[in-house]
Design goal:
alpha/beta, Rossmann fold, Transcription Regulator spoIIAA, 4 domains, 6-stranded parallel beta sheet, 5-stranded mixed beta barrel, globular
């Protein structure tokens, strides 16, 4: 039997798909060369925006047309959010966000009875679904899911309703999993979750895994400004296995909008945290997420947002136009932002982001950085530095090896040459 997995969305989905794959491979399955050759196709969906939902449905339809004889399995956030909308797409097994690790059992049940399976659990009562992995195919950094769910209920976000309340992986299970990944050659670990910074033993976990000899980099997928306390800052200052890059969502640069979003900080508080981080790591790359066109965002709110990001000077801004999610607080708000205004604001913020990104990269011209090689081609290689600069080197190097590289040029890409 051959398996194909299509993964949409976040790092958590990527991790979960890897755990699903592991369970099938351990039970005699092989990976198909493509979906057209698969006996079982699994689509792990995303619902963070309307566009993500649309893409999930498009992928499901496309795979069903391509291989109608396969067993089609759909799981994840979009199925959790739109169970009824997916009922007529020819899906054989449809579940939400719980029991992903049991998909092999569902497939075996389907093979036995040849009856459609639909299974959804109460996500507000769901326990942490324990998954562990020991490898990632074709990757040099390994994601490790340590947490699931979110209790913040930001008014624009549907994810807490689809993923449930905060729950966490046992710290010893996480440590053992990371040891296993490092023993299989992974030098960089990315700690991930829906709300990673809420993990109650995050600093303790970082300290413990830092003791693993061959683990060279610890990256945190994303963390909220409100979760960066003095203990974390002290660890960031002293532990140089923690990567020189942090992704800290701001979502808006306007206090008015932040309040309507139900975010838990003011702009002054956010900037204060950023300043504290830069005091202990002066060259750190701080990236962020930002939503424009929130229903109540006035032109003055947007101008305040521009002033805020110009003060902070992020290394990169991931800009998202507001996407209405039925069932959230923002969906009930009166919308004062037209589609034309939204597109203009997105374009304006992206221009600012591109300038910040290039300015940050240019600071490193002439400097030497360690690059972990992730891709090797006939005449060049590329990989990332600790501060998440992707560097192109004009010679083939060894995959998953570190090289000391001098940054030589920045245009639309960053270039470097091997020093050692």
């Amino acid at each position: 039997m051959k398996l194909w997995i299509e993964t949409l969305g976040c790092k958590v989905n990527t991790y979960e798909s890897e755990a699903i794959k592991k369970s099938f491979l351990l039970n005699g399955y092989e990976m198909a060369f493509g979906p057209e050759n698969a006996d079982v196709i699994i689509v792990n969906t995303c619902s963070v925006t309307n566009q993500a939902d649309s893409k999930s449905r498009k992928v499901i339809r496309s795979l069903k047309r391509l291989n109608p004889e396969s067993i089609l399995v759909v799981c994840g956030c979009s199925s959790e959010n739109h169970q009824s909308d997916l009922s007529d797409l020819g899906i054989d097994i449809l579940i939400g966000n719980q029991d992903k690790i049991k998909l092999l059992e569902y497939v075996n049940e389907y093979l036995k009875n040849n009856k459609k399976i639909v299974s959804f659990k109460d996500m507000q009562k769901a326990p942490f679904e324990n998954m562990t992995i020991d490898n990632y195919q074709d990757r040099t950094r390994a994601f490790v899911k340590i947490q699931d769910g979110c209790n913040n209920y930001c008014t624009y976000c549907i994810i807490p309703y689809l993923r449930g309340n905060i729950r966490n992986k046992d710290i010893n299970t996480a440590i053992d999993e990371i040891k296993s990944l490092v023993s299989n050659g992974f030098k960089e670990i990315v700690l991930t979750g829906i709300h990673t910074g809420s993990y109650p033993n995050l600093v303790k976990l970082i300290r413990e895994i830092s003791k693993i000899d061959k683990l060279e980099r610890i990256r945190i997928s994303s963390i909220e400004a409100t979760e960066i306390d003095d203990e974390f800052l002290e660890e960031l200052k002293n532990n140089h296995k923690i990567c020189d890059h942090m992704h800290i969502p701001i979502q808006s640069g306007s206090d008015n909008v932040l309040k309507m979003m139900n975010r838990k900080y003011t702009i002054k508080e956010y900037i204060n945290i950023i300043n504290k981080i830069r005091q202990v790591r002066p060259n750190i790359n701080i990236t962020t997420d930002l939503i424009v066109g929130f229903p109540t965002e006035t032109e003055e709110d947007f101008n305040e947002c521009i002033r805020t990001v110009n003060k902070i000077k992020f290394g990169k801004i991931h800009v998202f136009p507001f996407s209405k999610r039925d069932g959230t607080g923002a969906a009930r708000m009166k919308n004062i932002v037209s589609d034309i205004q939204k597109k203009r604001r997105v374009h304006q913020m992206l221009e600012i982001s591109e300038k910040f990104e290039k300015d940050y990269y240019k600071k490193f011209i002439g400097q030497k950085e360690i690059v972990l090689i992730e891709e090797v081609f006939d005449n060049y290689s590329c990989g990332h530095t600790s501060n998440y600069i992707k560097v192109i080197i004009n010679k083939p190097l060894i995959h998953n090896e570190n090289y000391l590289v001098e940054i030589t040029k920045v245009d639309n890409n960053v270039y470097g040459k091997v020093v050692k």
